[in-house]
């Protein structure tokens, strides 16, 4: 069964790079330009993992994590933060909100795919 990953980032080029890496690893990909758009796409369909930027317009990544964790259908969906932020305070805030992993940009796509494979349960 194909696993579905949601990529949330306001950069379309980044969504494309991540999307290509994930698709070539056999995942299905849903894209959203920010946290608000992401929430409208969490409509009950099974999503195995969410990759989100931290700094985005309308709704930032940490607010998105908090919102997702309030949704019964997605409470246990692992979330990976993919961001330029590398301060420990931000990382801690992300972890407290419920993020499972923190990947700092620039990143190697295969590094990200490896992190995804660890978190997506078979």
UniProtKB/TrEMBL annotation:
Modified sites of kind 4-aspartylphosphate? 53
Gene3D superfamilies reported for this sequence = 3.40.50.2300
* Pfam families named among the record's database cross-references: Response_reg
Alphabetical list of PROSITE patterns matching this protein: RESPONSE_REGULATORY (PS50110)
User: Which residue intervals define the domain Response regulatory in the entry?
Assistant: 4-120
Q: Which UniProt keywords apply?
A: Phosphoprotein
Tell me what this protein is called: Response regulator
């Amino acid at each position: 069964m194909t696993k579905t990953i949601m990529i949330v980032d306001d950069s379309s080029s980044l969504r494309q790079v991540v999307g290509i890496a994930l698709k070539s690893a056999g995942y299905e990909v849903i894209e959203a330009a920010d946290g608000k758009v992401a929430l409208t796409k969490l409509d009950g369909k099974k999503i195995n993992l969410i990759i989100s930027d931290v700094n985005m317009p309308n709704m930032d990544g940490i607010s998105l994590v908090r919102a997702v964790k309030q949704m019964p259908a997605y409470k246990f969906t692992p979330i990976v933060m993919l961001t330029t932020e590398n301060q420990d305070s931000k990382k801690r805030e992300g972890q407290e909100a419920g993020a499972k992993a923190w990947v700092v940009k620039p990143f190697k796509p295969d590094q990200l795919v490896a992190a995804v494979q660890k978190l997506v349960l078979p």
